[in-house]
């Protein structure tokens, strides 16, 4: 037992160092780890693939494999939005006793709105609007409440990215990872579906420059219904309704300004009053990025050349 | 009437008309992509992409054929600018088109078997075929295979800069094409130069 305590303290120290380097000084100052010591009681087992305990009946140390769905990455936990929480803020306090009481399985799981409905702090996220969109989404229609918010937004690791990331490519990677964790993962896909996931590359083989599209837009940008309630639309469409017309993105009124660049374009409009600047600094969308000055200049040059040629031609005819 | 000269061998004519067709398609599909809109009168975006890519690739081979053929045949010599006295000759040609032509002065550099192009033609064709076309091909390859293009250059998207350059070249070549078409009407008759490029006789 003494050994276990020493190991636990060392692990806790290791965890602090890892988190410290992962999140930097600022977050530490915010005291987001105020419950780390208490939470460590849970992470001791739930923070790893295997857990051990001393069986007093058999008088032996037992090592068992943790149910993979109950393994929580502690580093990710302390860098996500709810990192200052105690585990027992959401889970029953009786979980502190081991072995856990079987009746605890009956505990109800909170939903996002249980805490965030009419919550002033999260008003800017329009949680109620998101909930409406979620209820209209293909996931909810197909699987009902089984497909909860947690399916995509695991509360143990979810963090807001679109609003806090300067680099849009991080937002794209983060958001796509959420979709692909099931849609390109055979095991995860079968949690709800009878079939294994389709090959996403083959399913999108109609897309020219597929790699470039995958790196620069999110699955969501084509697979959601555009709504204005929330910053990130949650009404995931059935496959047949996804965007497939190139000009929906590749045109002056690109839908990307209502999806991927919605937040940034709003910011940019207020700062610069010019949407183009935002998209141009991040990537390039043929047809959507237009430079008004070059457009005008080229039209003027084109017009002047034609006028000169016409004058020359008319003079030739007259003098003939 | 002056005797006709056989100036355009069959390979030049085939290369020329293929080049012209590709040029037309590339300009139209290029404009369709740049000014894509839901109610566009031009080609649909996906058609434009396919046609533009295909024509671009054919243009590469057509250009390589042109460059090799010019290297190994007499035709290439027409493109050699002789810099000695070139400035004066160029000026004579510019003066002719802007003044002399209206005074019914004789053409300062009539077409002969040894001199197919006047100095102005020579300069514009060398710029178009040996500078602008290779550059538009290189930038086009950069766009066709975006993974070989720099992601970021001077804090801007490398693809955007490459495409801006590609568009600038496309625009310059379109201006060249307009002027070329107009100047082709300055022959014995308005259509004689077009006929020459069909039957080969000037």
Describe this structure in words.
The complex is a heterodimer of chains A (320) and B (202). With 320 residues, chain A is mostly helical. Chain A has 3 domains: 108 residues, no CATH class; 132 residues, no CATH class; 31 residues. Chain A is 47% helix and 4% strand. Chain A has 15 helices and 2 strands. Chain A has a two-stranded antiparallel sheet. In chain A, helix 13 crosses helix 14. Chain A starts with a helix and ends with a helix. Chain B is 62% helix and 2% strand. A two-stranded antiparallel sheet of chain B has the order 1-2. In chain B, a hairpin with a 2-residue loop joins strand 1 and strand 2. In chain B, helix 1 packs antiparallel against helix 2, helix 2 packs across helix 4 and helix 4 runs antiparallel to helix 5. Chain B is elongated. Classes of the chains: A mainly alpha (320), B mainly alpha (202). At the A-B interface, helix 14 and helix 15 of A face helix 2, strand 2 and helix 5 of B.
What structural keywords apply?
heterodimer; A: 320 residues; mainly alpha; 3 domains; two-stranded antiparallel ribbon; 4% strand; B: 202 residues; Fumarate Reductase Cytochrome B subunit; two-stranded antiparallel sheet; 2 strands; elongated
């Amino acid at each position: 037992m003494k050994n276990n305590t020493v190991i636990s303290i060392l692990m806790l120290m290791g965890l602090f160092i890892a988190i410290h380097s992962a999140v930097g000084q600022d977050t530490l100052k915010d005291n987001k780890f105020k419950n780390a010591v208490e939470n460590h009681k849970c992470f001791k087992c739930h923070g790893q693939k295997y857990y051990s305990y001393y069986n007093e009946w058999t008088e032996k140390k037992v090592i068992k494999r943790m149910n993979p769905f109950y393994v929580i990455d502690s580093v990710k936990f302390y860098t996500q939005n709810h990192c200052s929480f105690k585990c027992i803020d959401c889970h029953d306090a009786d979980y502190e006793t081991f072995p856990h009481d079987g009746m605890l399985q009956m505990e109800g799981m909170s939903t996002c709105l249980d805490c965030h409905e009419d919550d002033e702090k999260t008003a800017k996220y329009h949680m109620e609007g998101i909930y409406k969109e979620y209820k209209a989404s293909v996931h909810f229609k197909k699987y009902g409440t089984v497909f909860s918010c947690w399916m995509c937004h695991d509360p143990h690791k979810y963090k807001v990215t679109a609003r806090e990331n300067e680099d849009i490519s991080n937002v794209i990677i983060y958001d796509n990872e959420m979709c692909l964790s099931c849609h390109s993962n055979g095991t995860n896909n079968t949690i709800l579906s009878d079939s294994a996931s389709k090959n996403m590359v083959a399913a999108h083989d109609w897309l020219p420059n597929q790699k470039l599209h995958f790196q620069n837009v999110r699955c969501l940008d084509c697979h959601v219904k555009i709504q204005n309630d929330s910053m990130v639309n949650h009404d995931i469409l059935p496959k047949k309704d996804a965007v497939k017309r190139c000009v929906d993105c590749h045109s002056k009124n690109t839908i990307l300004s209502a999806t991927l660049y919605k937040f940034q374009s709003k910011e940019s409009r207020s700062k610069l009053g010019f949407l183009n600047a935002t998209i141009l600094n991040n990537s390039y969308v043929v047809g959507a990025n237009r430079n008004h000055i070059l457009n005008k200049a080229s039209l003027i040059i084109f017009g002047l050349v034609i006028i000169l040629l016409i004058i020359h031609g008319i003079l030739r005819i007259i003098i003939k | 009437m002056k005797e006709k000269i056989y100036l355009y061998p069959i390979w030049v004519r085939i290369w020329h008309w293929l080049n012209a067709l590709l040029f037309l398609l590339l300009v139209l599909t290029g404009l369709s992509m740049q000014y894509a809109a839901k109610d566009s009168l031009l080609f649909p975006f996906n058609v434009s992409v396919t046609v533009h890519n295909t024509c671009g690739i054919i243009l590469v081979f057509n250009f390589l054929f042109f460059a090799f053929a010019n290297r190994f045949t007499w035709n290439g010599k027409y493109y050699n600018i002789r810099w000695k006295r070139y400035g004066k000759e160029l000026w004579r040609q510019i003066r002719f088109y802007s003044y002399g032509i209206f005074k019914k002065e004789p053409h300062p550099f009539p077409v002969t078997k040894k001199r197919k192009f006047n100095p102005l033609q020579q300069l514009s064709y060398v710029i178009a075929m040996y500078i602008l076309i290779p550059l538009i091909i290189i930038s086009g390859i950069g766009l066709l295979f975006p993974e070989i293009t720099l992601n970021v250059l001077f804090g801007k998207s490398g693809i955007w800069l490459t495409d801006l350059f590609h568009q600038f070249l496309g625009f310059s070549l379109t201006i060249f094409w307009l002027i070329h078409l107009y100047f082709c009407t300055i022959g014995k008759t308005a259509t004689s130069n077009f006929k020459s490029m069909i039957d080969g006789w000037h």
